[in-house]
């Protein structure tokens, strides 16, 4: 019987599941090892997987990178490699060359999160369903549920929204924050995990990730202001998504930032979205609650999501 190994490569952690046992390692990434070159980080990744993957296994790997899943080519990742590498990374070729005995399937991590979310939370009447991850990076994927399709462009991309300019009313110093991809003022610059810390520093707010939720519970005004600033780009993104796609019936929001603040994040997001600003706004508090679902820790399993994509639950299709 062929072993199935599920892998999740993120900017912070590399998780490997064999059977019922999951091991977690610091990711070979610029977030964890900022002094290493991209080549060294990739070598670490291949070496680690070589050690932990059994002979002849089937590996379904969720990758925290912009990825052409049909070709197995990575196009870039701020959290993993510090922005756009010089040229494409032939990740599938690198892994297959080291371990030709293994059947590798590479899946974008947000696609894997989308599959996990759809399996757990899609309603029978949902037509289009989106999943946004807010973690060390930010991205979104949308599935057309009737067709069981995740449409992507000619390069295999969809929803790399973390690297577009943020819509924000924050002070100019916040709007000039650098992004890990090399850009400035991107959604990830302000609303990702590293972005929240950077915004707090610019605004002179005493911030600790581990105590953020408890400080909000205590009613700390500065941290409530910080939450408003970092949620705003996400609220504006979602407002645009709903405006452009009237069939978008459900949006799941996961990742460490949102999940760690689940009640506070959801309330702030609903408050910002429900504010009517023109005749074009169709969002009321009830309508927002019908569409928006902020996930709790454990709701999303990208390891299982990668397995689901490999098994054909959703098909990534170039349009």
Average pLDDT metric: 94
* String of helices and strands: EEEHEEEHHEHEEEHHHHHEHHHEHE
* Cα radius of gyration in angstroms: 19 Å
The outline comes out as globular
Give me the side-by-side strand order of the main sheet.
3-2-1-4-7
Highest-level CATH class of the largest domain? Alpha Beta
User: What's the name of the CATH homologous superfamily of the largest domain?
Assistant: ATPase, nucleotide binding domain
Query: How many beta-strand runs?
Result: 13
Number of domains: 2
Instruction: Tell me the helix content.
Output: 25-40%
CATH topology tier name of the largest domain: Nucleotidyltransferase, domain 5
The biggest sheet, with number of strands, parallel, antiparallel or mixed sense and barrel status, is: 5 strands, mixed
From the structure provided, what is the oligomeric state, counting identical versus distinct chains?
Answer: single chain
Strand-residue proportion: 15-25%
CATH architecture of the largest domain: 2-Layer Sandwich
- Class derived from helix and strand content: alpha/beta
């Amino acid at each position: 019987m062929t072993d199935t190994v599920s892998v999740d490569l993120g900017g912070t952690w590399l998780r490997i599941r064999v059977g019922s046992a999951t091991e977690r390692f610091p990711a070979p990434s610029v977030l964890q090892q900022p002094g290493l070159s991209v080549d060294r980080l990739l070598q670490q990744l291949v070496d680690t997987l070589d050690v932990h993957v059994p002979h002849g296994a089937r590996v379904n790997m969720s990758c925290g990178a912009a990825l052409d899943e049909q070709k197995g080519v990575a196009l870039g990742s701020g959290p993993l490699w510090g922005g756009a590498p010089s040229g494409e990374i032939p990740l599938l070729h690198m892994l297959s060359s080291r371990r030709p005995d293994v059947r590798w399937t590479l899946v974008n991590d947000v696609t894997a999160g989308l599959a996990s979310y759809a399996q757990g939370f899609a309603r029978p009447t949902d037509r289009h369903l989106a999943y946004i991850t807010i973690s060390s990076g930010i991205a979104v994927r949308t599935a057309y549920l009737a067709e069981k399709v995740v449409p992507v462009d000619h390069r295999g991309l969809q929803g790399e929204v973390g690297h577009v300019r943020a819509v924000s009313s924050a002070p100019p110093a916040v709007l000039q924050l650098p992004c890990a991809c090399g850009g400035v003022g991107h959604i990830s610059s302000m609303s990702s995990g590293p972005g929240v810390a950077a915004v707090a520093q610019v605004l002179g707010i005493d911030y600790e990730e581990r105590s953020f939720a408890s400080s909000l519970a205590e009613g700390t005004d500065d941290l409530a202001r910080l939450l408003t600033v970092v949620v705003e780009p996400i609220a504006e993104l979602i407002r645009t998504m709903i405006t452009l796609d009237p069939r978008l019936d459900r949006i799941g929001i996961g990742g460490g930032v949102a999940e760690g603040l689940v009640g506070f994040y959801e309330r702030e997001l609903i408050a910002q979205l429900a504010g009517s600003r023109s005749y074009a706004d169709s969002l009321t508090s009830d309508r927002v609650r019908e569409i928006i679902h902020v996930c709790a820790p454990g709701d999303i399993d990208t390891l299982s999501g990668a397995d689901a994509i490999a098994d054909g639950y959703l098909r990534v299709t170039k349009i």
